[in-house]
Structures are given as C-alpha cells and as structure tokens.
Amino acid sequence: MSWLLALPVVLPFLTAVLTFLTRQSPLGRWISVAGSSVLLVASIVLMATVLREGVIAGQMGNWPAPFGITLVADLLSAVMVLITAIVAVAVSIYAIADVDEGMEQLGYHALINMLIAGVVGAFITGDLFNLYVWFEVMLIASFGLLVLGGRPEQIDGGVKYVALNLVSTIMFLTGIGLLYGMTGTLNMADLASAVDNADQRLLTIVAVLFMISFGVKAAVFPLFFWLPASYHTPAFSVSAVFAGLLTKVGVYALLRMFTLVFDHDIAFTHTILLWVAGFTMVVGVLGAAAQSDMRKILSFHIVSQIGYMILGLALLTPLAIVGAVFYLVHHIVVKANLFLIAGVAQRIAGGTELSRIGGLYKSAPLLAVLFVVPAFSLSGFPPLSGFWAKFLLVKAALEVQGWIIAGIALAVGLLTIYSMTKIWAQAFWEAHPDGIDPKLTSLSNRDRAAMLFPIAGLAVLTVIIGTMPEPFVQFAEASAAQLLDPTAYITAVLGEQP
Amino acid sequence: MEFLFAITIGVLVASAVYLMLSNHLLRFIFGLVLISNAANLTIFVAGRLTDGAPPLIPEGADAPALAANALPQALVLTAIVIGFGLFAFAIVLVFRAWTTLNSLTPDDMRLAEPEEAHK
To answer: Of A121, A161, A130, which Cα lies nearest the Cα of A144?
Structure first.
C-alpha cells in the first residue's frame, strides 16, 4: 500500500525535475500538464482505495510506526489530495496562456510542481516533523513563485510574506520540540494517546503554540496581514494556486491536530478558536468591502471564508465538522476559479483595478456567466455549493444555541454579496472607462482555450456540488466521523491497540 | 545542564524579539536567525541531555545504562539545513528589496498596499 500513498508526492517531484531540465524549451508546460494529469489519476485511485478499504497507512523505509515516517490517508486526506490534483491540472492548463517564456525560463513549472508536492505531502503525512518538512517545501517554492519576475510590488509583498511565514515556521518547530519532550513521540496517531500522560497545563500551552503557527498559515485574525499584502502581486495562475491551496493547508493542519491530538481542553482551546472564527469572518469581509482592486477584494474574501472553516472546527459537533470539511473542499474550487477569472479580466480589459475596467458583461457574456457561478457560490446563493456549506455550518451553530456566531455567519454572507456586486457592477456592468470593448476574441485561440477550459471545468464542478449535494454531504459526514472518532486512523497506523 | 540551556534559549529568544521589533529588515533577519537557533536548541534539550553517552550501539552488544537519543539530533540537523536554505533566500530577498525599493524600513514599504487604498 505504501507506493499508492507515496505516488501523489513522488509524481509532482518528478514533474518538477523534468520541467526544470526542460525550462529553456516550450516542452515544459506540456510536461507540467501531463504530470498533473497523472497526479489526478493517482489521487483518484487513492480516493477509490480509501473509500473501499477505509483508512490506509504505509511505513516509509519499513520502519514500524511510531519510529519511522508514516504516510496515512483517511477520507479527509484523500479528498484534499484529490482536490489539489484538480487545481493542479486546471492551473497547469491555464499557465499555458498566463505564464510567459521569461517566467518559464526562470523555472515557473518546476516551482509550481514543487509547491504541489509540498501541499500533497502535508495532507498525507502522519508524522509531525514530516509535516514541518512539507511546510518548508511548500514555503520555499511559494517564496520563489511569489517573487518570480521581480516587479517591485512583488518584492514588497514577498518581504512581508516571507517574514511572517518564517516566524510561524519557527513557532511550529518550537511546538514540535516541546511536544516531543513531553511525549517522546512525533507520530500523530501515537500522540493521540501519548498526550494523555503529559502535564495537561503544559499541553495547553503547546496547543496554543501550534494554534498560532497554523493560524498564520491559515490566515486567521489577527495573523492574516501577510495575505492581503502579497496575494495580488504574482502571476494570476500563481495567485490562484496560493488562494486555493496554501491557506487551506493551515486549516487542514488545525483540523487534524485539534481533533486528533489537542482535544484535552476543548473549553479553552476551542473557545479561542470560536472567537478567532468570528473575528476572521467579520474583519476579512470588511477588508474586502474597503478594497477597489479585484484581486485585493478576493484576497480579503479568503480571510473571511477561512473564518467559516475555523467556526466548524471550533464548534466541534459532528454537523459542524461536516460543514467544515464540505466548506474546505468547496472553497478551494471556487476561490482558485475566481482568481483565474480575474486573470482573464486583466488580459482582455487591461487591469484588475475596478475603476479602470468595465464592459465585460456586454462584450464577454461568457466570462460574466463563468464569474457569476463561483461568485454567487462564495456568497452562499442556493443552489450552488457555497449555500450548502454555509447552511451546514449555520445549522450546526444553531443546534448548540450559538445565536450570535450564527448571526455573524449570516451577516458576513450578506457583506460578501455586497463586495461581489461591487466587482460585478464595476467590472462587468459599467462601460469601460476608456471606451474599449474587452472581447474574449482579443485573445489568441490557444490562449482563449487554455484560460476558459479550466475556468469552465471548475465552474461545472461548483454547479455539480451545488445541485447534487447529497453524495458530497454523505462523504463529508463519513469524513467527519473519522475525525471525531480517530480509532480507525490510529489502528491503521499503529495496528490493533490493546 | 538543562538550566543552562533554558537560560541560553531565553536570552536568544529575548534578543531575537528585540531585533525583530526594531523596524529594520536586516535586523529582523538577524532576529529570525537567532530565534530559529533557539528553536533548534529547544528540540535538542527536549530529547534529554546525556553526557558522553553513545547514540549508536553495535549490533549484538548489550545496551549500555545510558544512551544518547539520536532522534532529536537528526531533527535538529534537518531543521538547520532547511533553515539555512530559507535564510539564504530571505537575505537575497532583503538585498533585492534594498536595490529595488531603496529602503529597509517596513513602514516605508507601501508599494503593494499604497496608502490611498486605506482612506
């Protein structure tokens, strides 16, 4: 079973090496598309296996757990790997039109595949120190991608991104050291029971270290400032991958650690998370309302949406975790797509600053339709995927009499619509200030196909999740059950426990 | 021994925080280097300190009463290597920031988020 678990990590690495070797030729972009397609197939096989056999684990180098490095896939890991592969395919196709030869020669394709390898590794590892290593793989690749091209804004945004993420990494490392000192193990399944014998007060302190570290990665209030400072500066395909995947790795790590390991003092840790969730939602959406650039608005939306996922974790009821898992998957698809659409708007209308563009509805109705799907989904319009995600979370909040937090979640949904209509009104409805018609036909045939095909694909996925939510909700329920009762996870890693 | 390490780590973290709050990017990077070494020392101490004990025991030999824990040393080694790569990148980035933005004061670096966006 080990090879099946290692494959989704090895494939992007292999693609990265191949694309690095061919970075001087146009072949690289096709290798990237092919590599991510094979990754998609591998992750579908992994998903099918997990659905059939339950949680699967593999010990790397044949060291038995908890001594060696364990790779483990439960339903949550498998679906995160699958969705990562989907985004990787979409973006590698989009990059054919979006990424110029200069960036290709600097190694864009190698870096993006390295990033995907890091993301997949983080989702699939069962070892805390290994998680740190994947975080670093992801970080160093994202550093490179963020400043690739070297425009002054990129350097400016990059400095803030690098500085805050390095601080978070060091906190994570300190947390790992302290946790190891207290329990003598770094295997996540082993930690689940080992923490019972540790000093519970010290454990809470370590839990908060982890919370801060993952909180920076996930961009929660008050640790999110690096995100709106940097996400609007790199190439659009880079922002789309960042927006879709990077913060979600932080959310995944929180979800994993605070259900499996740090569930000893829920009254303390999860109350903090609840406050964090509320503030993240509100501050993010207010930030979005104040912005006037399409990518900046969308960046602040990421922050506010992360709040919803944290809300699910904070409530920690079965329904709330279902909502969080559903939200996580839906959000990756929708958010990546919105950034891809912003890229098309920039190409045909000449910018993303809302006051300088317009007329997209009249001249490019197809793009308008493709924008409406993810935009309305993000705001939570039925019958799109975002509606079900918000519905589950608000229902979960109401079930535990969390009237205020449920009210906040609903109000933030309204404000999200407000900032989406701002984009809609200024970029799509109003005439272009320079009087030009931003037509899709102004793109070459190849670029048009490469840009619209992934956008349409992701939009169709949003509609499918929205109109047929039943199997997806059932999947999220099964996945939440695994998270809340980690017996299957622990047994898969360590074998039968006495 | 642990006491000495704890004091060292504390001093490192305190100086690092002082440097990182000093509103100058280069000092911030120096602070990061210090605090990352503090984190490495933390891992090292967390593996328990043993004086002059072997980490590896020959196959078939009897286990000695005291053996050093090799795992934290491996972890620290990994963390040092990764940290080295990250700092190399960070320092080059700061240099690029100095040449393109002509400033290393974070307060002046408003290119990606201009003032008028926050009116």
So the answer is: A161
Residue in A with minimal Cα distance to B39: A174
Q: Is A166–B90 a contact, with Cβ atoms under 8 angstroms apart? A: yes
Q: Of A134, A160, A173, A191, which to mutate for an interface test with B (greatest number of B Cβ within 10 Å)?
A: A173
Domain that holds residue B81: 2-50+68-113
A65: Cβ–Cβ under 8 A, 6 or more apart, which residues?
A: A57, A59, A126, A187, A189, A190, A493, A494, A495
pLDDT tens sequence across A177-201: 999 988 888 888 888 888 888 888 8
Q: How many domains does chain A have?
A: 1
Could you tell me which of A191, A427, A469, A220 has the C-alpha nearest to residue A325?
A: A469
pLDDT at A128 over 50: yes
Closest partner CB to A153 (pick from B82, B86, B111): B111
Does B102 contact chain A (CB < 8 Å)? no
The CATH number of the domain where B96 resides is what? 1.10.287.3510
State the residue range of the domain holding A367: 2-493
Q: Say how many CB pairs under 8 Å bridge A and B.
A: 111
Residue B78 belongs to a domain = yes
Report the candidate in A122, A55, A190 with the shortest Cα–Cα distance to residue A489. A55
pTM over 0.95: no
Assigned domain for B11 exists: yes
Closest residue to A156, CB basis, from B20, B47, B101: B101
Sign of the Cα torsion B78, B81, B85, B87 reads positive
What ipTM goes with this model?
0.90
Question: For tokens 């979370």, what's the residue?
Answer: A393
Chain B residues in contact with A169 by the CB 8 A cut-off are 86
Assigned domain for A498 exists? no
Does the pLDDT value for residue A229 go beyond 90? no
Measured between beta carbons, the chain B residues lying within 8 angstroms of A178 are 42, 46
Residue A327 contacts by C-beta under 8 Å, 6 or more apart in sequence?
A305, A308, A309, A312, A389, A390, A392, A393
Number of domains in chain B: 1
Q: What is the DSSP letter of B117?
A: G
Neighboring chain A residues of B86 at a CB cutoff of 8 Å: 136, 139-140, 143, 166, 169
